Amino acid sequence: MRIPCPYCGSRDLSEFVYHGDAAPKRPDPAAENASELFYTYVYLRENPAGPLRELWYHASGCRSWLIVTRDTRTHDIAGAVLAMESAS
Amino acid sequence: MVERGPLVLRPASAIPELCGSVELSRAWVLACERHPQLATVIAYKGRRADVAARLKDRYALSLPDGPRRATRGASALIGLGPRSWLFQRETGPALEPELSEVLGDAAAVTNQSDGYVVFRLTGPRVRDVLAKGISIDLHDRVFVPGCSVGTTCAHIGVILWRLEDANDVSVFELAVFRSLARSLWHFIEESAAEFGLAVTPAC
Questions:
Q1: Which residues of B touch A8 (CB under 8 A)?
Q2: Does B18 reside within a domain?
């Protein structure tokens, strides 16, 4: 699998570290029900079949976090953007 | 109590005694170790334009907006990432304090002179040596002088760039974290053995 890094260009999978679904947001640790929120955040993840926006870290390249849209059934990659330039 | 004198750090060569060295006239690959001054420049959020303007003003260097290397005299700027660059200078006064003063509050400047070892490789078979460890297309027309890349070589993280040709032969430099330099050198030595490798300070 190759990932189109917006900075480096198309690169081999071995240069990247996978983090997972880009959607979950870290809860507020000061919230009243923080432990419940963190349980949900850490453990209760969707496992969709189809396109998914994911966080990948280009550890051996530009050392940037990317948001990669990957089809979990086919590994087809629809696109990749720098996480720092993405709205979410 | 043992009285201790001041700690003296001496630069140690990353190139140990060469096992398979050949005569210069028979070598198809030449290598040497360089000691440039290095510093990383990481622009603070929203300050990229300031960094670009100040480096242009002071060093007449254009900030590369991709994985490329810009040079002016003895200074060079290598694109590492969207907001980070490696400043390289072969000579001159201490680099990091000077850069810190120039860039002030616009960027984080960190001295890397002793953090990296730089190997320079050249010779007619230099691409064959690198191809065994690097999965980047280094073809003459693709990876032209001025290109740079962060990648792995033999599973070791490196920053690689291509200099201007010397005597019509391609010249590459690899920067590697100092603690990994001997491992990378081991790869270079093994990979170049079949072509004949010579270590020469003047490569």
A1: 67, 149-150
A2: no
B128/B91 same-domain check = no
Contacts of B180 in chain A (CB under 8 A): none
Of A8, A12, A85, the CB nearest to B150: A8
* Per-residue pLDDT tens digits for A62-75: 999 999 999 999 99
Residue B34 has pLDDT above 80, yes or no: yes
Cβ–Cβ contact A8 with B under 8 A = yes
pLDDT tens-digit map of B69-109: 999 999 999 999 999 999 999 888 999 999 999 998 999 99
- CA angle B2/B4/B7 to nearest 5° reads 150
Alpha carbon A18 to chain centroid, angstroms:
7
Please calculate the CA angle A62-B34-B178 and round it to the nearest 5 degrees.
55
Spatial CB neighbours of A10, under 8 Å, sequence gap ≥ 6: A2, A3, A4
- Cβ contacts (< 8 Å) between B149 and chain A: which residues? 8, 61
**Range A2-85 has CATH code 3.30.2270.10:** yes
Q: Tokens for B105? A: 């509050």
Nearest CA in chain A to B156: A60
In terms of C-beta distances under 8 Å and separation of at least 24 residues, what long-range contacts does B125-130 make, across chains too?
A: B125/B28, B125/B29, B125/B192, B125/B195, B126/B29, B126/B169, B126/B170, B126/B171, B126/B172, B127/B170, B128/B195, B129/B29, B129/B188, B129/B191, B129/B192, B129/B195, B130/B160, B130/B172, B130/B191
Predicted-complex ipTM score: 0.86
Count A/B contacts: CB-CB distance under 8 Å. 36
Which residue do the tokens 């060295």 mark? B21
CATH value at residue B76 = 3.30.70.1520
Q: How many domains does chain B contain in total?
A: 2
- Alpha-carbon distance B2 to nearest alpha carbon in chain A (angstroms): 44
